[in-house]
Please model this.
Amino acid sequence: MGCFVGILWQRFGTPSGANDPQTGLTFDSGTDEEFTLAYKAYQNNDRPQILFYRCNREVGLDQLDPDQLTKLKTFFGNFAANKKHPGLPQDFKTTEELEQRVRQDLTKFLFNHRKLHCALCHGTRAKSLGNYLFSHQNKPRLIENVPTEVCQQCSEYYFDAAMIEMFRKVDWNSKEPQHVLETLVYDFSTLILKPNKG
Ligand SMILES: [Zn+2]
Model:
């Protein structure tokens, strides 16, 4: 899990001295270097998630640096759909506005991350069919081929809460099961737990 947060106002910065490994050109600034590397990683691995914010508060004339402004214009121009790094930077004027936007974006980021990844091992979740085991009137019952998601790494299943709620409302005695499974049952206290050497 990762998130890159970039914030710029009236300065793009000064060259970091490092070269872009892809183009061989010197980075325009430390921000340029960090952003370019993060964006490349995002293109290759779908992460980190990139959030970018631009302050559009007025600048006093004596603070204006034309060279810096040109660099900023080029950088933000490259967020356009057909340019170097398409995306949507967000504008803000006040600190409160920035705080509100970052909080909103990070909340959304965490929500999506939780939805797409396994809570146990952070592996990726993928659509699958699973078997849902539950008990109704003291009888264990199994529903096969339930559309669900499964962790690609540790095989943990993620059943939809609305679907489980729906199962609760079914009149199971009126449903004919497809087949009956015989189940072997063990009590935990009778198990001798030894490391499996097989
Ligand atoms: Zn997992």
Summary: Residues 118, 120-121, 123, 151, 153-154, 156 surround zinc ion (CB under 6 Å). The chain has four helices and six strands. The chain has two domains: 3-116, 131-190.
